[in-house]
Structure formats: structure tokens, C-alpha cells
TrEMBL record:
GO terms for cellular component: cytoplasm. This is Ferredoxin. Keywords: 4Fe-4S, Electron transport, Iron, Iron-sulfur, Metal-binding, Repeat, Transport. Residues 1-29, 31-64 form the 4Fe-4S ferredoxin-type domain.
């Protein structure tokens, strides 16, 4: 499933550059994750990089966007093909 950023976000700017899919951007008040671009770093890394660097641990799984590892890999292939 995709990830999302909660209201605990402190806008520290460390997650955005870590996202290999460009899914994280500055929102009106806090950073946001585009669920259409989030693959939890499947295809790139073993662990979601934004979760690894977040100092306040405010990036949980999004229960509104449930996806299997196979779904995330399929999304990764579509995204990387579009970027290529």
C-alpha cells in the first residue's frame, strides 16, 4: 500500500529528496505523498526511504490505498517506463 504523511510532520525537508519516484512534495501545510507515485520504494530499495529518514516517524501505511508487493512492483514498472 502507499504511504502517507500525518499531521505530526515538522516540514524538516528530509523525505522529499529521498523518494526515487518523486511522490513526495510540499503541501499547503505539510509534505504530502501522491499515492499514484508511491511504491514504498519497491523496485528501488528494500525499505521505504522516507520512513528511514523521518525524524518524527510520521509516515505510516495508507489504509485507503492497499496494494500488494506485486501491485507495487507493477506500479514501479509503469512509473519507471514513463520516466525513461
Amino acid at each position: 500500500m502507499a504511504l502517507y504523511i500525518t499531521d505530526e510532520c515538522i516540514n524538516c525537508d528530509v523525505c522529499e529528496p529521498e523518494c526515487p519516484n518523486g511522490a513526495i512534495s510540499a503541501g499547503e501545510e505539510i509534505y504530502v505523498i501522491d499515492p499514484n507515485l508511491c511504491t514504498e520504494c519497491v523496485g528501488h530499495y528494500d525499505e521505504p526511504q522516507c520512513q528511514q529518514v523521518c525524524p518524527v516517524e510520521c509516515i505510516p501505511h495508507d489504509p485507503n490505498h492497499k496494494e500488494s508487493k506485486d501491485d507495487l512492483m507493477a506500479k514501479y514498472k509503469i512509473i519507471t517506463a514513463a520516466m525513461g
